[in-house]
Each structure stands twice: as structure tokens, then as C-alpha cells.
DNA sequence: TCTGGGGTCCTAGGACCC
DNA sequence: TCTGGGGTCCTAGGACCC
């Protein structure tokens, strides 16, 4: 059996952990730039605050209901996430934990006796809460997709389930599928939900009444076929081992204030490139592909999108590199070629791709391999200083110093667990 | 004038996830 | 006035190979 462990209202839970007075109060956490609502406590859900809704549209409702609002604090969430995942790794054999996102892990429970599943899962939940202060829900079923179904129902009926639900008989599975709206199925997003409802498919169960071929045809080929089989109880999505290097590394941001000059755009792109390069080095990798994208502000009448079409450009470097200066140089050339005077921009980003481990950088017949020893030592020194001090105390001149475009974060909590100067104080 | 079959690799774009 | 960020996988289609 496969389980999924999912932290309840994770970002809100992190904020509350250090402010126990907020325990039974409505709390929400906002996305970067204080753009929209991305985490809600049960109390906030109860007063009708919508997930993903823009902050500026909900501001009045939040105030009226006394909802406490936080900007997002990823240092804090990342650290607490790590504690939860480490607890899971302590409680399960090697290779049985697959971290799926910041607040979710799949766990392989094949080694647990069927009769012991319930008690094991409950004790797992209790230990996580005791050790980390974060409450979790656990869904268990024969496949990943079904464990997500179980998890959703466990969360929805906390009083009945105690946040743990095990689907271990065909009858329980069928009932669970009947209670699951198609749009809430893992792998069914907005487009597919719309399409399926046109076919009269409104629950997960309705989908299982079709055939695998039908799912293949209508839901994106093998992806849909796989999902169909998973819902029928045949595992098709294996547990993944920890990925050593990512395939792509992106740093993209909306601007705090709109940008109109090339100079500011260059600063932003240089900053994002430096950040992406840092992530690259942290996983001991190098990249050959670099893409720069800029997004103009522009009303498109009648369009769902609130911004103009993204302009992007990409280059392939002669040799994979992890050196900030080399990547910045390429990125700046790209942004200059994309920029159009007279337009106002609201977002920019950098994507590194074609990523290889630094030990296997492929030679290039036509490019002289330079001696990078010194440059790499410099990068390491910069990374170490930036890591042990705070933020980006050392940066490249191209990143600029004024940074009018930096994002807004007006209600961020302290980094209680990752910065000495922000440790909580006891009187 | 007629013009095969079986591949690989790459990129762009679409769908999804949290 | 103000709507996030960082990923994954898959497919289709074009260029190219013999």
C-alpha cells in the first residue's frame, strides 16, 4: 500500500507554530508580492476566504472577519518542511519516503502488515505532530492516485477520520471515488475537468466507468491511461528515488513596481540569473541552456490573462557552466534583444536548462576549455558568505543597488528557525 | 516524371502538480 | 492600482540520418 502524508494548511501552520495565540483564529498566507492567497487555516476557510483569490479583492473580507494575514516566508516553511520529512525518514526504511512537495510525501507501506496499517499510520501522525508541531493528514490506498483520494477525504471529514483514511477494500474505494468530484482528482486540472464534465463525467467514479483507451484518447495520451489504471487500483506511478539534479532551474518574479527602462530590466535579469546560478552550484551541476523571459503589462481585451504575451529568447552555450559571470553575460544579451522601448514590464525570469553534473561537463571540439579553477573558487567564496551572512550581501554589479522593482512583502514573519538575529525570545 | 521506410534528436507548447 | 513561483512529463512536428 501507498500512503501520502500531507501537512494541514502548511504555511498557516508554520506561522502559528511561533504565535500560539493564533491557534484557533483565521489565518492566511499570501504569495510573493502579496499577490494572492495561497494558504488558509480552517477558520479562514469557514468564513469563505477563497484559495488562490487575489489579496486586493479579499482585503475587505479579511478585515471584516479578523483574519490575520502573512506574507510568505519561505525560509521558515523550508526549514519546517525539512523537519517533517526527516521525521518520516526516521520512521520508515530507506527508500520508502518520496518527498513530493514542500508539504507532501508519498510513503511506501509494503512492509507493514495489512492489519497493522491503521495503528501504524496513526502513530506516525502523532509522532510528527509531537516532534515538529505540524499536523498532517494521511491517506492510504493501493496506488498513488487513490491515496490522494483517501487523503482528501481524510482532511474533509477530520472529526470522523481523525485525519487518517485507509482505502483497503473495493467497496471503500468505490464509495470514495463516488464522493470525489472529478476536478479534485490528482492529474485533472481546469482544462480536463471542463472537458470531462461535457461528457457527463462529474466524479472520479464516473471516469472509471469509461475505458483505458478512452482515457488515453481524451486525457493527453499515456498520462490519462495511467491515471485511469491508478484509479482502478493498478499501480502505474512508481515511487521515485530522490532526484540528484533537476532538469531545469528557474528564477522568475513579478516586479514590485512596473519597469519601463532597459537598465532596470537588466538589473532584475542579472539578479535572477545570479540566484539561479547559486541553485545550480548547490546541486553541483552546470547548465548549457539559458532562457530569458520578459512579460509586458498590457490589457488583452476579453482574455483570461491579465498580462501581455511573454517574450522569450534562448541560447545554448558552447560549454555547460555554473559561473555567474558567464551566465549573466548570456542573459544580458538576451534581455537586450527582447526589450522594446516604450513598453511597461511586470515580470521577468531566467530558466537554466540542459543541466549536467559538474563532473561530466562535455568538452566542445570548437571551444577552448578554459581553466576555471580560480573563478570557481570565487563562486564558492561568494556562496559561502551569502549563505552564512544573510541574503545576498555579495552580488555582481550588474544586479544593481537601487532595485525599485523588488517585490513587496509587507507582512513577513521573522525567520525564527534559520537566522540567529530572528530567533524567538522568551521573556 | 516517378520519389520509401524507419529511425533519432530537438524544440515549443500544453497539460498538470503544489 | 494591485492576480506567485518553480517544477514535471508528454506530444507534435520539423530537421535530419541512412
Distance between the termini: 48 Å
Using the 3D structure, state the CATH architecture of the largest domain.
2-Layer Sandwich
Number of domains: 3
Strand order of the largest sheet: 5-6-1-7-8
Number of helices: 15
Percent of residues in helices: 25-40%
- SSE sequence, one letter per element: EHEEHHEHEEHEHHEHHHHHEHEEHEH
Fourth-level CATH superfamily of the largest domain: Reverse transcriptase/Diguanylate cyclase domain
CATH topology of the largest domain: Alpha-Beta Plaits
Q: Using the CA coordinates, give the radius of gyration.
A: 24 Å
Strand residue percentage = 15-25%
Number of strands: 12
- Principal-axes geometry comes out as globular
Instruction: Please identify the top-level CATH class of the largest domain.
Output: Alpha Beta
Largest sheet: 5 strands, mixed
Low-confidence stretches: none
**Structural class assignment:** alpha+beta
| Mean model confidence by pLDDT | 89
